[in-house]
Amino acid sequence: MQGLMELSPNLKSIFEGLGERSEDEVKRVLNVGLKELLRECEEEILDLEIKYGLPFERFKENLDAGRLGDPHSYPLEKDAMIWEDLVREKQIRLDSIRRLERLS
User: Fold this and answer.
1) Domain ranges of the chain
2) What integer pLDDT is reported at residue 6 of this predicted model?
């Protein structure tokens, strides 16, 4: 596992038991986990798109223009903050997956 990361002996033995090259197994497990986190993030974004009938950018425009009601109301403010965080999180997950795949 030289070069990728140093694992504790207990963790290293788990990955060595999964396949021929433990470094490849670590990358595979990380990739699968990151993709699952990305899927969860995309599902939450989809739920908000369905709720408001808009993609985030249009939601934000309508929110700022007051077309969705009081932009400072708790439900709208909460959804806006959650949605913005999800969009950011999605980008972080995508970037992480791309960087991991370049290691292969």
Assistant:
1) 36-103
2) 75
